[in-house]
Amino acid sequence: MRLRTKFLLSLVTVISSLTCATLLAVRQTAGLRASQEVRREALGTLHTFQVIQHEHQEALARKADLLATLAMIRSGDASAVKDAGEDPWQSDDCELMALADAKGKIVALHATIPGFPMEAAQAELKRSLATKETAGWWYSGTRLYQVALQPFYDGDDGNKLVGTVIVGRGVESAVRDLSQASSSHVVFRYDGKFVGNAVSYSAERQLAGRAREGVLSEKLNLDGENYFVALQKLTVDGIATITILKSYTESEQYLANLNRLLVGLGLVAVIGGGLLVFVLSDRFTRPLGSLVEGVQAFERGDASYPLPPQGTDEVAKVTEAFDRMRQTLEKNAQQKQELEGQLRQSQKMEALGRLAGGVAHDFNNVLTVIKGHADILSDRLPAADSLRSSAAQIEKGASRAASLTRQLLAFCRMQVLQPKVLDLNGLINEGCSLLKKLVREDIAFCFEPGKDLAAVKADPSQIEQILMNLTVNACDAMPKGGQLTIATRNMTVDEEFARNRPPMIAGKYVVLAVADTGEGMSAETKARIFEPFFTTKEQGKGTGLGLATVYGIVKQSHGCIWVESEPGEGSRFEVYLPATEATPDEQSAGRHPEARTESAEVVLIVEDEEGVRELASEFLRSAGYQVLTAKNGKEAVQLASERNGPIDLLLTDVVMPVMRGPEMAKQLQQRNRNLRVIYMSGYLEYNTKNEELSDDFFLQKPFSRATLIDKVQEALRRTPAGVGR
Ligand SMILES: Nc1ncnc2c1ncn2[C@@H]1O[C@H](COP(=O)(O)OP(=O)(O)OP(=O)(O)O)[C@@H](O)[C@H]1O
Ligand SMILES: [Mg+2]
After folding, report:
1. How far is the CA of 546 from the centre of ligand 1 (A)?
2. Lowest mean pLDDT among 234-238, 693-697, 715-719
């Protein structure tokens, strides 16, 4: 069941039960009060009747007194009654007058409404005299009279009863007045008979039964109608009674109306309350519902379900927190995916690198031998010899193969770098003339140097390589011409920027950008461009090593490379190189091998590859040096210890079996502090930093005779490393 339904149901239940309880209580109280009111009114009417009766009795007593006086004056003559009855001012409240003699015989009877039989009057008088009452009730057979009896006396002492005067008054007027004033039925009963037709026969019978049982006040149902009955004896013997019947109909009607009103109010309260709760619950549960839908959508993998902020309550806060959590999870998942992708890519590159590096290493040694011997052939063959061109072809082929090997080594970051602190703008400006030669005429070339560009630490020849490869690619991408822009700028990479471009780390960089307006590339191509041998160019046109080389150099220089490109929108390659505070070194321009004069300096060559060892000694001997050779470190150390004369220079391979070049050099330098060392290598062991090698005494394989001799001369000119330290 939904939260809203639960909320609605529980609140509606609470409202309904509270409303019902309140209405029942109101109804109960109102019913009780209504029946009390009826009872109070009935008893009030009875009380009023008693007051009226009392007043009438007094009035009748006064009349009786007057009439008795009159009768006495006339010595009990019956004419007194007759005269008094005809007297106009007496007839209003005196409807019955009678005169009885001393024996109790009625001698005169006068009633304003005829029909009081003499026998009945005589019987009533007899009863009254027997009880000696002066007030009482006489019944004519049709009418009930309230009467007052006044005996009158004569004689000297006034003790002689002359007769009795009786005056009476019918109860009709009192009944009428009472009924009107109290809206009640007033019923008189005399000697078991009901006076007048106030109630139906069956009601009379029921009432008679109750009266017999002596019940004075109670609730009765008469002819299907509820009454409160108040009964009062008018005489001591109870022959005459008055009964007040106050109907409950009016109060029941009132209660029924009240009930209807209360039920209506109850319904209004429940419906109104329900609606209010509905609206309120909607307000409260809608944000919750939307949060639930957001969570469900997120479970299905949809993190874009809109969760707009609504208010400041707890639900809103939870929603906001969930939204933040969702974004973080989403970002983390994305980052994880990207990192996995990058890891896969770098693992692939790593594997490719190992493969390429392994091949290139052995290949390099072979090439050094081929190239060197071709060199010797060219040198030694007479100028006119037809074999000279063959030697030149061999050298050219070997050079080309060597350049491929170099690229492969560059890709797998196994090149021996010779980094210098560089001003990139200066380097590009210098190389511009060369670059312009690469750019066709239909391509507009421009260089936008960044202002106050920071220096970078990199191998200048490698940076030139990067520029060249990127320029060539850009030109190839613009077969119909276009614009090529090379630009540099300083850039401070913040944490946010770096996070989006792992594995870049925040810091100051110099950006080298190469942008073209060429054909651009698809996402699939973009994903693979740095792989070695990936090319979209037709067979024979591209090796697919250009960007692989760039990638390797950038990585080895602790930089990053990013590419932005869309098909038809051109491409923009950005190389980020870490900026350095150091001041740029002097550009070592124009290092040309000097003409070598004969010298007897001793050079020890240590190289495990026999071909390379022999080639190097051949080159050096031909240049006049004394050459010693050893095929590994151990042999070299032994040779040095056995030798009497000094060794001026050690030309050694870096990676060798038994003992590594640098280790051996250290041992020899301990013996001979004047020993200069030149390391020669085509590569570095995979991912090994080349800090252990002195920058200046390094010879890149494959080498030519000129570069070898040049390097040896340069090293011999300098102060020995061991002396400086
Ligand atoms: N500026 C560019 N615009 C469009 N595509 C490019 C751009 N630079 C490189 N590419 C794409 O990347 C691929 C790989 O480039 P890369 O330089 O590694 O090899 P290549 O140019 O094909 O061959 P090589 O450089 O060895 O002669 C290219 O074949 C080309 O599809
Ligand atoms: Mg290329």
Report:
1. 7
2. 693-697
User: How many whole angstroms from 525 Cα to the centroid of ligand 1?
Assistant: 9
Tell whether 265 is covered by a domain.
Answer: no
- Asked whether residue 280 is domain-assigned, the answer is no
Q: How far away, in angstroms, is 251 Cα from ligand 1 center?
A: 105
In a domain, 293, yes or no: no
Give the total number of structural domains in the chain: 3
User: Helix crossing, 460-476 with 424-438: angle to 10°?
Assistant: 40
CB atoms within 5 A of ion ligand 2 belong to 473, 546
Residue 396 included in any domain: no
CATH of the domain at 37: 3.30.450.20
State which ligand 1 atom lies nearest to the alpha carbon of 573. 1
**Tens-place pLDDT, residues 2-46:** 777 787 788 788 888 888 888 889 888 888 888 888 888 888 888
For 606-643, what is each residue's pLDDT tens digit?
998 888 888 888 888 888 888 999 989 899 999 888 88
Q: Give the integer Cα–Cα distance in Å for 411 and 414.
A: 8
pLDDT for 690 beyond 60:
no
Ligand 1: list residues with CB < 6 Å: 469, 473-474, 477, 516, 518-521, 525, 529, 534-537, 542-548, 571
Q: Which two tokens stand for residue 670?
A: 């301990």
In angstroms, the Cα distances linking 100 to 97, 168, 664 are 10, 14, 175
Element (H, E) at 492: strand 482-493
User: End of a domain among 202, 222, 250?
Assistant: 250
Q: Is the pLDDT of residue 716 over 50?
A: yes
Atom 17 of ligand 1, nearest CA residue: 546
Shared domain check, 653 and 558: no
Local confidence band at 718 (pLDDT 50, 70, 90 cut-offs): confident
Residue 672, domain extent: 602-724
Q: How far is CA 173 from CA 152, 169, 182, 191, 579, in A?
A: 29, 9, 14, 21, 127
* Helix residue ranges per DSSP H, 439-545: 460-476, 495-499, 523-528
Domain match, 692 and 554 both: no
Calpha distance 353→408 (Å, rounded): 8
pLDDT, tens only, 458-481: 888 888 889 989 999 999 999 999
Report the SS3 class of residue 40: helix
* Closest C-alpha residue for ligand 1 atom 11: 529
553 shares a domain with 437: yes
Report the atom number in ligand 1 closest to the C-alpha of 545: 26
pTM: 0.48
Do 69 and 216 lie in one domain? The reply is: yes
CA of 511 to the centre of ligand 2 (A): 20
Is 76 strand, coil or helix? coil
Residues 55 and 135 in one domain: yes
Q: What is the CATH number of the domain that holds 466?
A: 3.30.565.10
Which CATH number is 715's domain given?
Answer: 3.40.50.2300
The residue out of 250, 281, 316 marking a domain boundary is 250
* Residue identifier of the C-alpha nearest atom 7 of ligand 1: 473
Is the domain of 571 the same as that of 623?
no
The ligand whose atoms approach the alpha carbon of 514 most closely is: 1
Query: Given ligand 1 and candidates 400, 411, 476, 516, which is best to mutate, with the most ligand atoms within 8 Å of its CB?
Result: 476
686 falls in which pLDDT band (50, 70, 90)? very low
Does residue 147 sit in the same domain as residue 241? yes
Question: Per-residue b/e over 444-456, b at no fewer than 16 CB within 10 Å?
Answer: ebebeebeebbbb
Higher pLDDT, 196 or 456: 456
Of 212-221, 249-258, 543-552, 690-699, which one has max mean pLDDT?
543-552
Classify residue 585 as exposed, middle or buried by CB count within 10 Å of its CB (0-12, 13-18, 19+): middle
Indicate whether 654 and 698 sit together in one domain: yes
